[in-house]
């Protein structure tokens, strides 16, 4: 959370529209009644990021520029403030996310695969370029950052030079972190403070890189990142080859029916996505609900997911947690 919070802030500073974020600043479903989340209404979804610009059809670039190349989607940090990030236009509610990528080089550059919900449940893979023999796993429930003892370090060989497949398999009973097909960590529901800290609400998938070692970051973040980033040694690049997602509860929308943040409180619905059939523009979409509107060619998604996520981050900052986090 230390990391992804700073990541979100870096990305915001780099130009995520503040007006969008502010719209959602106060919508944490633990405290408010929030618009439904747009769900992925299919069991599986795959992206080959070498395929050209069509690869991004259900992804939003929330910060910087990310393009398809023959090596995969290219995420590049060239100067202070760069934090290229993409995010799914949809949420999944329990599922499996597999991402094959080559991490960025340099000192203090963080390559990440993060899943995050509106009430700040979070599941992470994070590779710190400075330490090229391991990758970190981490998780948070309901934005609880009272301790940073939830992470583990997992051995990995040449994460910068070599593509590895980083997988999260997430059910209501346990989370598995899987590296190149081998389970390297299992978190049982009961082991996360009897489930209280267990990630269990619909999540978006985010991938990107950012400079944990940026000289303007706090001393704690720079230390975690293994030192200050020297931008003259860049550019620092991550290549993302492919992502395969399985949604264990495919549906058009997910709604928090109460403020517990428990998975049993999430209701799923299919009534929204193929309900209308008139227009192929997004003019009928309601950004406020972040929901999908139908088009004859398929669903058109609004940017609701993006805004909500960054909005949550902002809200936490507003709540005074920033000092504790950075
Ligand atoms: C929700 O509201 C309570 C008080 O009503 C407050 O203590 C808490 O920080 C809020 N939580 C979030 C995540 O906004
Ligand atoms: C690269 O991606 C940006 C959006 O991130 C897009 O505007 C631009 O057209 C793309 N460039 C190429 C060459 O595809
Ligand atoms: C996703 O699935 C495709 C097709 O089966 C496969 O070629 C690719 O390696 C998979 N990617 C990941 C990250 O598992
Ligand atoms: C936050 O997590 C800690 C364990 O890391 C736990 O002791 C505490 O009870 C949790 N707080 C809440 C409000 O769930
Ligand atoms: C990463 O950077 C170090 C130091 O500049 C360099 O020695 C190494 O060759 C680089 N590795 C890659 C894969 O670019
Ligand atoms: C929603 O539709 C999808 C795709 O047809 C289906 O797999 C899923 O079971 C449905 N979910 C609900 C809650 O009806
Ligand atoms: C909506 O329509 C698409 C395209 O026909 C289909 O793949 C999807 O399963 C439908 N969703 C539901 C919930 O019926």
UniProtKB/TrEMBL annotation:
GO terms for cellular component: fungal-type cell wall; plasma membrane; side of membrane. It is found in: Cell membrane. It comes from the Eukaryota. Coiled coil: none annotated. The active site is at 122 (nucleophile), 126 (proton donor). The keyword Iron does not apply. GO terms for molecular function: carbohydrate binding; endochitinase activity; glycosyltransferase activity. Its EC number is 3.2.1.14. GO terms for biological process: carbohydrate metabolic process; fungal-type cell wall organization. It is an enzyme of class 3 (hydrolase). This is chitinase. The lineage of its organism: Eukaryota, Fungi, Dikarya, Ascomycota, Pezizomycotina.
């Amino acid at each position: 959370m230390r990391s992804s919070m700073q990541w979100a802030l870096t990305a915001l500073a780099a130009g995520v529209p503040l007006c969008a974020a502010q719209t959602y600043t106060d919508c944490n479903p633990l405290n408010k009644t929030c618009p439904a989340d747009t769900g992925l209404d299919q069991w599986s979804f795959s992206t080959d990021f070498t395929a050209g610009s069509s690869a991004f059809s259900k992804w939003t670039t929330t910060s910087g520029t990310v393009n398809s190349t023959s090596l995969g989607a290219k995420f590049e940090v060239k100067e202070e403030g760069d934090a290229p990030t993409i995010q799914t236009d949809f949420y999944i509610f329990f599922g499996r996310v597999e991402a094959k990528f080559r991490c960025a080089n340099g000192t203090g550059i963080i390559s990440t695969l993060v899943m995050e919900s509106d009430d700040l449940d979070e599941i992470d893979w994070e590779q710190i370029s400075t330490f090229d023999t391991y990758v970190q796993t981490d998780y948070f429930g309901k934005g609880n950052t009272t301790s940073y003892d939830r992470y583990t370090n997992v051995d990995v060989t040449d994460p910068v030079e070599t593509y590895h497949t980083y997988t999260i398999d997430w059910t209501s009973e346990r989370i598995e972190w899987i590296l190149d097909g081998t389970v390297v960590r299992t978190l049982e529901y009961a082991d996360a403070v009897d489930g209280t800290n267990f990630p269990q609400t619909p999540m978006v998938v985010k991938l990107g890189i950012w400079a944990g070692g940026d000289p303007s970051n706090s001393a704690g973040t720079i230390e975690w990142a293994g030192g200050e980033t020297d931008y003259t040694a860049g550019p620092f690049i991550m290549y993302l080859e492919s992502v395969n997602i399985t949604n264990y509860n495919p549906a058009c929308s997910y709604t928090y029916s109460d403020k517990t943040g428990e998975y049993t409180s999430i209701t799923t619905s299919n009534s929204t996505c193929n309900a209308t059939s008139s227009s192929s523009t997004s003019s009928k979409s309601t950004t406020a609900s972040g929901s999908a509107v139908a088009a004859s060619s398929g669903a058109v998604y609004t940017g609701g997911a993006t805004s909500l996520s960054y909005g949550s981050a902002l809200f936490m900052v507003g709540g005074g947690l920033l000092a504790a986090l950075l």
